[in-house]
Design goal:
Blueprint lengths: L10 E4 L21 H10 L3 E6 L5 E6 L1 E4 L2 E6 L4 H8 L2 E6 L6 E13 L3 H15 L1 H4 L8 H7 L3 E16 L2 E8 L1
Antiparallel strand pairs: 1-9, 2-3, 2-6, 4-5, 5-8, 6-7, 7-8, 8-9
Helix pairs in contact: 3-5
Length: 185
Amino acid sequence: MAAQGPATRPTTEFDARYSSATNPRPGAADATATEWAEARRQLEAAEIFWVSTVRPDGRLHVTPVIAAWHDEVLYFATGPGEQKARNLAHHAQCALTTGGNALTAGLDLVVEGTAEPVADPVVLEEVIAAYEAKYGPHITSPEGTFHGIGDAFRRGDAVVFAVAPATAYGFGRNGGVYTHTRWTF
């Protein structure tokens, strides 16, 4: 697969039905959509994501992964025999989720799209560089948890998937003021 290329600027929709704008409290009247630039910044910085896939029998499978945001595409990898790889071979639609676990602070993000295996060696090298820049010694140091992952990508011991967002959601929490933003690409 060639790089997806930069996504067009998404359409942003603020959904007041699920935001504090409908539940008056201090600051709620000023609740607005989260800017895509902020969501993208948080996608770039997030260290752990949860990937949700669908098994051939329709049951869900959710598991944590590390991922890198590069050229408006979210990349993650898994072993070719792992459940998520088998699921994606059957049904390529997936969601990657990241965020925090505090009730009154943070921004949770969900990126929905189609997972496509990366075969282009040029794109693969860019993804490896993005992983190394993001995770640093976890990947580059011999003592790192994921040391050697770049070589595993090159050898095909891990399948690298690219997910260009089709739709993304942001669920913001700021001192009890909640927002729900949807971005459509």
